[in-house]
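Figure 6 in text form: structure in, sequence out.
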């Protein structure tokens, strides 16, 4: 798999950020109406404020997000946008916005040849910014690039050092500002994705993409769980932000619940993947796990086993292809799909 994670920030509020991300710094905030399409965006650029997401160790990464520039960093400083950390909490390399509006790639505050853009960002403008990087003491040609709205603005020179720690991998992506300089409270991020560079698809820049949130709107094929009230399953999990007051539950391994979902409003270009997310917890002692998946065209495909906690957390699984056809998703395929969950 190459597409690891996506977030459009439309299905939870600020108090739920800890359910979606492994950790945070500062006070990131979900802001309704400040995303790219009058949807929600996240404010992570004021002071030292960022979202932290953990993954399996990898040397090669691709990530992107929209950035609405409310202000440029003050005091001649900079604000980071993407930062890669290794498993020991050591910063490897980062992509930042400078006070002049230029973009820059550094090895933990060490400048590299070819690492600064000529292109500058303007206040009041929204851009789609992507970073592709391979962590190494001597990088190969074209292995570290930054794109703005689909155009290369940085190509770090061959042989430059983008590995600050002893190992050549990262296990955590931090989105937002990890230092004290600020781009201001009116700067917002939306439509965030993360890939590694494995596999045959989604292993390079995805381009200017958007992340659409679809909520349950009908009963699915699998109805094994027990509703906390009434008999209609989907109405207990169709909130835009999660709660713990109504839910579907099961303690029986192998049981599944699935939900029909809203249709996509429109599609321009290709669909890179579908990510199913469920806000889930276990309510008693002992081990319990969940598999998160999708049902499409009569085929149910669930992801890997994920151990549950006693506090509500978003458990996710990305499906890059339609499990019924093993080919890329189409609009009709997504509109006919169900979100599925299996007790382990």
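Output sequence:
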């Amino acid at each position: 798999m190459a597409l690891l994670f996506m977030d459009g920030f439309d299905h939870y509020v600020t108090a739920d950020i800890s359910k979606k991300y492994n950790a945070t710094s500062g006070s990131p905030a979900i802001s309704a109406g400040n995303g790219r399409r009058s949807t929600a965006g996240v404010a992570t650029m004021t002071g030292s404020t960022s979202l932290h997401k953990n993954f399996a160790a990898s040397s090669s990464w691709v990530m992107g997000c929209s950035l609405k520039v409310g202000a440029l960093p003050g005091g001649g400083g900079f604000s980071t946008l993407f930062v890669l950390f290794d498993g020991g909490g050591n910063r490897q390399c980062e992509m930042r916005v400078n006070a002049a509006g230029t973009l820059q790639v550094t090895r933990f505050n060490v400048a590299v040849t070819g690492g600064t853009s000529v292109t500058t960002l303007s206040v009041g403008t929204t851009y789609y910014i992507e970073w592709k990087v391979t962590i190494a003491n001597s990088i190969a040609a074209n292995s570290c690039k930054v794109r703005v709205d689909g155009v290369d603005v940085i190509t770090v020179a061959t042989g430059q050092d983008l590995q600050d720690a002893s190992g050549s991998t990262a296990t955590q992506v931090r989105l937002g500002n990890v230092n004290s300089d600020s781009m201001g409270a009116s700067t917002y991020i939306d439509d965030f994705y993360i890939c590694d560079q494995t596999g045959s698809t989604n292993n390079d820049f995805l381009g200017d993409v958007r992340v659409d949130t679809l909520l349950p709107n009908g009963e699915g094929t699998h109805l094994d769980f027990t509703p906390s009230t009434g008999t209609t399953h989907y109405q207990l999990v169709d909130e835009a932000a999660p709660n713990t007051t109504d839910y579907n539950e099961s303690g029986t391994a192998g049981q599944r619940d699935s939900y029909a979902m809203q249709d996509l409003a429109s599609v321009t270009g290709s669909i890179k993947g579908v990510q199913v997310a469920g806000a889930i917890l276990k309510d008693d002692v002992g081990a319990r796990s969940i598999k998160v998946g999708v049902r499409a065209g009569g085929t149910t495909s669930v992801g890997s086993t994920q151990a549950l906690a006693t506090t509500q957390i978003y458990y996710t699984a990305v499906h890059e292809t339609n499990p019924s056809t093993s080919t890329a998703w189409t609009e009709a395929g997504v509109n006919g799909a169900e979100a599925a969950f299996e007790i382990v």
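Caption detail: The chain has two domains: 3-196, 216-343.
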